[in-house]
Amino acid sequence: MHTSPPSLDYQKLARQIKGWAQELGFARAGVTSIDLSHAEAGLQEWLDAGFHGEMDYMARHGMKRARPHELHAGTISLISVFLPYLPLAAANSEEILANGSKAYLSRYALGRDYHKVLKGRLQQLADRLVKEIGPFGHRVFVDSAPVLEVEIATQAGQGWRGKHTLLINREYGSYFFIGELFTDLPLPADPQQQEEHCGRCARCMTACPTGAIVAPYQVDARRCISYLTIELKGSIPLPFRSMLGNRVYGCDDCQMVCPWNRFAVNTKEADFHVRHGLDDVTLVELFAWSEADFKQKMAGSAIFRIGYEQWLRNIAVGLGNAPASPGVITALMARAGDPSEIVREHVLWALGQHGVYDTDLRPGLLLF
């Protein structure tokens, strides 16, 4: 627990924290209390509907997500920060999505792993606080524990929850990462932004390729392309495969159509700049990567955690949806006998999409 004298000016300290956060590269910081009880009913309904899919940890943690003091004992104030990630020089998203031979990867994953970047930066903020007031109780969170990040950010005046459930800020749009610093400091809470600015707009809902936004502010993760390509470990359900198009890691469609992203700010963080040309690369090229290639190129990337098998699974689906060409068929046939049952299954499905079936896979077969 924090042992600073009660005479400490916490109003002034909160202002200093926000300034230090911006010095560290965060767009802004806000402070809120730990009372998230109003979010518990909605969270329970979402879990009861099964919308979390195979993300068992969400049900396992239950209401702990809405009770910060249960996550870190002694917590009485929450500091919310966000950091833009949109790379300035990345290829145009709409153009990549429109070219079925290219691979589309969510723009947040084109650079280094955001977990490490934000955690390191938040720890620097905590260290700066220690230097100012001495030791205090705290814990850093970046999408790494059962934390209601958007709810905390909304309550801290950072913006509002869009109908796609992501946080939107008037000056920054929604292309940013969120992080939290739980503290035992009695910091004054910022006023919550009472008004949300989506109005009658439902572009995110109609743009979702799989209809995952089943109602305003409610996403069925089981239908979400980010879930299907990242969180789901087994086979991608057949009805969704053609809907994935060329999206092989995550999906940005709901953000791309959001009018507020006209104000999206490009990142200043070198760590989020495009690596290995992942913003504009063909599916065939990525499918040719060996496991060693994957591990070497994806080291330090958020993509690394899905593993090579899931990577190939996703790309196989993309190739099944790609315009037919000798290169696409050759790439798929080269992995028709892959050691992984999951990869083989998706490769054979993809070949079937191009009119090539199990019985056709004979040596010397001329497809073109």
From TrEMBL:
<keyword id="KW-0846">Cobalamin</keyword>
<dbReference type="GO" id="GO:0046872">
    <property type="term" value="F:metal ion binding"/>
</dbReference>
<feature type="binding site">
    <location>
        <position position="258"/>
    </location>
    <ligand>
        <name>[4Fe-4S] cluster 1</name>
    </ligand>
</feature>
<dbReference type="GO" id="GO:0008616">
    <property type="term" value="P:tRNA queuosine(34) biosynthetic process"/>
</dbReference>
<feature type="binding site">
    <location>
        <position position="208"/>
    </location>
    <ligand>
        <name>[4Fe-4S] cluster 2</name>
    </ligand>
</feature>
<feature type="binding site">
    <location>
        <position position="224"/>
    </location>
    <ligand>
        <name>[4Fe-4S] cluster 2</name>
    </ligand>
</feature>
<feature type="binding site">
    <location>
        <position position="201"/>
    </location>
    <ligand>
        <name>[4Fe-4S] cluster 1</name>
    </ligand>
</feature>
<keyword id="KW-0963">Cytoplasm</keyword>
<feature type="binding site">
    <location>
        <begin position="251"/>
        <end position="252"/>
    </location>
    <ligand>
        <name>cob(II)alamin</name>
    </ligand>
</feature>
<dbReference type="InterPro" id="IPR017896">
    <property type="entry name" value="4Fe4S_Fe-S-bd"/>
</dbReference>
<feature type="binding site">
    <location>
        <position position="65"/>
    </location>
    <ligand>
        <name>cob(II)alamin</name>
    </ligand>
</feature>
<dbReference type="GO" id="GO:0052693">
    <property type="term" value="F:epoxyqueuosine reductase activity"/>
</dbReference>
<feature type="binding site">
    <location>
        <position position="198"/>
    </location>
    <ligand>
        <name>[4Fe-4S] cluster 1</name>
    </ligand>
</feature>
<protein>
    <recommendedName>
        <fullName>Epoxyqueuosine reductase</fullName>
        <ecNumber>1.17.99.6</ecNumber>
    </recommendedName>
</protein>
<comment type="pathway">
    <text>tRNA modification; tRNA-queuosine biosynthesis.</text>
</comment>
<dbReference type="GO" id="GO:0005737">
    <property type="term" value="C:cytoplasm"/>
</dbReference>
<comment type="function">
    <text>Catalyzes the conversion of epoxyqueuosine (oQ) to queuosine (Q), which is a hypermodified base found in the wobble positions of tRNA(Asp), tRNA(Asn), tRNA(His) and tRNA(Tyr).</text>
</comment>
<keyword id="KW-0408">Iron</keyword>
<keyword id="KW-0170">Cobalt</keyword>
<keyword id="KW-0004">4Fe-4S</keyword>
<dbReference type="InterPro" id="IPR017900">
    <property type="entry name" value="4Fe4S_Fe_S_CS"/>
</dbReference>
<feature type="binding site">
    <location>
        <position position="251"/>
    </location>
    <ligand>
        <name>[4Fe-4S] cluster 2</name>
    </ligand>
</feature>
<dbReference type="GO" id="GO:0051539">
    <property type="term" value="F:4 iron, 4 sulfur cluster binding"/>
</dbReference>
<feature type="binding site">
    <location>
        <position position="254"/>
    </location>
    <ligand>
        <name>[4Fe-4S] cluster 2</name>
    </ligand>
</feature>
<keyword id="KW-0819">tRNA processing</keyword>
<comment type="similarity">
    <text>Belongs to the QueG family.</text>
</comment>
<dbReference type="Pfam" id="PF08331">
    <property type="entry name" value="QueG_DUF1730"/>
</dbReference>
<feature type="binding site">
    <location>
        <position position="167"/>
    </location>
    <ligand>
        <name>cob(II)alamin</name>
    </ligand>
</feature>
<feature type="binding site">
    <location>
        <position position="233"/>
    </location>
    <ligand>
        <name>tRNA</name>
    </ligand>
</feature>
<dbReference type="InterPro" id="IPR004453">
    <property type="entry name" value="QueG"/>
</dbReference>
<dbReference type="GO" id="GO:0031419">
    <property type="term" value="F:cobalamin binding"/>
</dbReference>
<keyword id="KW-0411">Iron-sulfur</keyword>
<feature type="binding site">
    <location>
        <position position="204"/>
    </location>
    <ligand>
        <name>[4Fe-4S] cluster 1</name>
    </ligand>
</feature>
<feature type="binding site">
    <location>
        <position position="178"/>
    </location>
    <ligand>
        <name>cob(II)alamin</name>
    </ligand>
</feature>
<keyword id="KW-0479">Metal-binding</keyword>
<comment type="subunit">
    <text>Monomer.</text>
</comment>
<dbReference type="InterPro" id="IPR013542">
    <property type="entry name" value="QueG_DUF1730"/>
</dbReference>
<feature type="binding site">
    <location>
        <position position="226"/>
    </location>
    <ligand>
        <name>cob(II)alamin</name>
    </ligand>
</feature>
<feature type="domain" description="4Fe-4S ferredoxin-type">
    <location>
        <begin position="189"/>
        <end position="218"/>
    </location>
</feature>
<feature type="binding site">
    <location>
        <position position="143"/>
    </location>
    <ligand>
        <name>cob(II)alamin</name>
    </ligand>
</feature>
<keyword id="KW-0671">Queuosine biosynthesis</keyword>
<feature type="active site" description="Proton donor">
    <location>
        <position position="143"/>
    </location>
</feature>
